[in-house]
Design goal:
Layout (H helix, E strand, L loop, with lengths): L13 E2 L1 H9 L3 E4 L2 H4 L6 H15 L3 E8 L2 E4 L3 H9 L4 E3 L4 H6 L4 E3 L1 H10 L4 E3 L10 H4 L4 H8 L3 E4 L8 H10 L4 E4 L3 E4 L2 E7 L2 E3 L2 H13 L6 E4 L10 H17 L7 H12 L3 H28 L1
The protein binds pseudouridine-5'-monophosphate and manganese (II) ion.
The site of manganese (II) ion has 3 residues, from loops.
Amino acid sequence: MEDQKPGAPMLQPDYSEEVRVAKASGKPLVALESTIITHGMPYPQNVETARAVEAEIRDAGAVPATIAVLGGRLHVGLEPAELEQLARADAVMKLSRADLAACIAAGRTGATTVAGTMIAAHLAGISVFATGGIGGVHRGAELSFDISADLRELALTPVTVVAAGAKAILDLPKTLEVLETLGVPVIAYGQDDFPAFWSQSSGLAAPLRMDSAAEIAAAHLARGALGLAGGQLVANPVPPKAEIARAEITPAIEAALAEAAAQGIAAKAVTPFLLDRIFALTEGRSLAANIALVRNNARLAAEIAKEIATRQG
Ligand code: PSU
Ligand code: MN
């Protein structure tokens, strides 16, 4: 299960100044992905959101580490100008587990998905990561076999990922089944139901429930103590004020899925295509909810990172 061969030289990431100082002084760190910036939101909301999410983590007393590959260098923590450049760039690669090494070797620029970010965070010694939604099992996966590499990564890499569940563009029951098969703990925060990204509840019960960052931190450390590979998925519901009712979002999802099928969208293009269409079809309402929930996840991730740091102290 472990990736690292004993004795193999490990790649040293390029740390931002803020992350370098935090690592040296043992401050709690929270990793952030970059696909949400390049493939998940339009400019300039993408860079504004990225900055706001970083600020939430600082305000909570932890240090943000946004992860991306810039010109073949793996960056853990981006300087403000680097973040702006990435948010404006086009033709940025989308880096999941399969793509990360190829992007670095070719000297290219890419944004990390949940899977790619988990790999980089673990390499940098960061155990908590905040995002919006994870990839999962797509509807019709029994024919397309489209299952995000994010799920397998959660089974392999020991990082606790805070997300607002998975989007209803996916098949949520199948996503939960695959996570169970892979042995990934799925923890709803403060409620019994698995949240559904824009909505607080998916109508499905989550396998586990925890009500404090301390409990989540203790479970993270207990997995390590058991020698278990893999991380945890913390499913944090969207704040009530920002929620979009399921009845309101469903027509947009159905329309986006129909367009994707009609245009033959496949593989890595599926998730960005659906997100872009749903933003357009809800006239930005989905984007406002998305921003609110990512910020909310960043705050919880910072609390978990602080609890882990205290217990390791
Ligand atoms: N789900 C979202 N927003 C996102 C993504 C997923 O609600 O931005 C991005 C994440 O980076 C996630 C990736 O890791 O899409 C999953 O892509 P795929 O389904 O191709 O694995
Ligand atoms: Mn896919």
